[in-house]
Specification:
Helices cover 70% and strands 0% of the residues. By secondary structure, the protein is mainly α. α3 packs across α4, α3 runs parallel beside α6 and α3 crosses α7. It starts with a helix and ends with a helix.
């Protein structure tokens, strides 16, 4: 049985091309994460915008698995650190300054969240709806934990844990859960469509 959907797809490919396919897949998910960042909605009561990035991080990790999923997010952050315009709109300039700003905790948590969701997917959770939901929910909790912790300890807007939760968790959790409810159907559907489910 294949551990990830991507692994199932490339297993049938010529071994000479597998590394190139892995590199391409990692780059593709990193680019999708950057595109998702451009669809951002600023909210007046928090310095953290609403984006679709967590969804891409988690679905990408489920497809690629822990190692490649994490690599895709490390690549995404590296592209941002060198100054490419891959981060969401913000008063802060593109580059490493974004990791020090209000959204830094969320961004830095992406590789860990991808690793967690990818690890659970490798264990077969992504083949059924509730399993996929559980895997992605665990990854989402990592994103929120990183984001809220960063706001709590490093951002002047959030003085105390209650304030960090008020600007970094409560405004987003319901919409993110709705996104996960929809996204969790993607992986079981892809397994069935591609015929690798069994």
């Amino acid at each position: 049985m294949y551990s990830t959907l991507f692994g199932a797809i490339i297993t049938r490919a010529d071994a000479r091309f597998r590394i190139a396919e892995q590199i391409g897949a990692v780059a593709f998910v990193a680019v999708l994460t950057a595109i998702a960042a451009q669809v951002s909605i600023p909210l007046p009561f928090t310095p953290v915008p609403f984006t679709f990035q967590p969804l891409v991080v988690l679905v990408g990790a489920a497809v690629l698995g822990s190692r490649l999923g994490m690599s895709s997010q490390i690549l995404y952050l590296a592209l941002g650190i060198v100054g490419l315009p891959v981060f969401a709109a913000s008063p802060l300039p593109q580059g490493v300054a974004r990791l020090l700003g209000p959204t830094g905790g969320y961004l830095m948590s992406y590789p860990v969240a991808a690793f967690v969701a990818g690890t659970l997917a490798e264990r077969g959770l992504d083949r059924r709806y509730l399993g996929a939901l559980a895997a992605m929910l665990c990854g989402l909790l990592v994103v929120f934990a990183g984001g809220v912790l960063w706001l709590w300890i490093g951002v002047p807007h959030a003085r105390g844990l209650a304030a960090a939760l008020a600007i970094g968790f409560y405004p987003f959790i319901l919409l993110d859960l709705v996104k996960l409810l929809v996204a969790s159907a993607v992986m079981p559907g892809l397994w069935r469509i591609t015929g690798y489910a069994h």
